[in-house]
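[audit] Reproducing an earlier prediction to check determinism. Same input, same settings, fresh worker. If the tokens differ from the archived copy the diff job will pick it up downstream; this log only records the rerun itself.
[audit] input (78 residues):
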Amino acid sequence: MSSVLITSILATAVTFYLQTRFQKDTSSTRAGLIYALEPVFAVIFAYLISHEVLSGQEMIGGVLMLTAILIAELGKTR
């Protein structure tokens, strides 16, 4: 039960509040890049907390998706 409360309060309510509060203070490109880094931090914390390790195929897929997001976001500035 406590994990449900922590997830619902910290990971949802607080996160959405902080996103809406501070997103107006940055450019759309910077916000897109920050949001694109969410899976990177998820992998880092999964490794540090749960000792999860991605396979080679998962790493390649993640790098390809992150590269596509970065190309799309950085292409907006031109």
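[audit] rerun output stored. Observation attached for the diff report: The mean pLDDT is 84.
[audit] end
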